[in-house]
Predict the 3D structure of the following.
Amino acid sequence: MSDQHPAAEAADEAVDTDHKAPQGSGPEPAAHHRPASSADPATRMSAPTDSTPGTSRSGRSRARRALRRTLIALPVALGVLVAGSYTATALLDIPSPPTLAQLLTTEPSQQGTLFATRTIRASAAPAPLPVHDEPLPATVPWKGERVPTEQFLATTRTNAFLVLKDGRLTHEWYRDGVGPTTRLSSWSAAKSVVSLLAGQAIEQGRLREDDRLVDLLPQLKTGGAYDAITVRNLLDMTSGVDVPENYNEHYPLTGTARMYLTRDLPAFAHDHRALQFPPGSRGSYRSIDTELLGQILAKVQGRPLSDLLADNIWAPMGAQDSATWNLDHDNGNEKAFCCINATARDYAKLGRLVLNHGSAQGKQIIPLAWITRIATPAPHKVDGWGYSAQWWHPAGGNGKDYSALGVYGQYLYVDPVSRTVIVKLSDYGDQQDEQETFDALRAIAQSG
């Protein structure tokens, strides 16, 4: 593996994104991207492009890597150079140069400590994780061969690796310097948690999938095609909102990278209402969809997302540790598209909650209908994989498993057939190898 820091590796990959992605499988070439503005957003919809994924697994993997950057390395590296003064960063409404510089030297799993947070309180009645030690298989499939499981964990720079079978903790491993009480960033796995909150709101009658975004957040109305976006579109990544995941070196503070750094998420959403394709016409991974969904949930529930998570999921499922959720500024808005910071055991309890049809400690916490929703792929694939309500359905396997997934190698994998949950939290740089990782996780789930 390269000696580069993961952030620098991500920068190398981002610079070459347009050359690596197979034709038709990713966003439009960098030359077609430009900073979005609020001026006449309804008239700036790009012509749809053919999004048929490549037929090879490696082609899909490259395209997904190009699309799934949820931070930062290239934008931060260039941002320090281009916007390297306090005045410039203040005008851009992003963190100061010292914070940007710290992002380059802090492992992704710990970058949550660099931003404002809101606390998600531990449960007053933590649920136990019964322990029943079982060895992992000696080897797992990896890139066409079998390698020792320890090598797989080391190669993918794993920080924590937990396996639950039938609700019992059969394996728990941490790298040096990490332990059961260490908070680790979820990155985009937070999207799947937002989905669970959405399912609760729908069950309560506070929200419907057919609701239009602009009826819930009227400040976003454009009078054009944007206004047709529904909650369902946001859940299934079919909104068409043009906030790209890939990064263009000519515009280092655009797209999801800028959204990650902004100190005013509602203003960012207002300023980025252009469309890449008509809402509902196809799927394309966009972190802005989850951010908009989070803003809707906070509005209809009248409470911050962290408080909703603490009271409606964290406490009743029996989380044993407090967690945090990163904000755009002090006492501000949660970054709904990323950045919950929690212990591996509590991520495992989230997985167990989903595996157990939304039930924990004798209570139905997530509606059973919502578990069915996330377990059933939606009509449109997202970047070549099945997708449903912010949960991924990777290719292959038994066709029944699904997962939360975050950049840098965060997995909350659920296999109902083998009754297995696997938590893998990593600092894997830009070498995502997501399909290969799922193949390894499946082998572990099916062992024993």
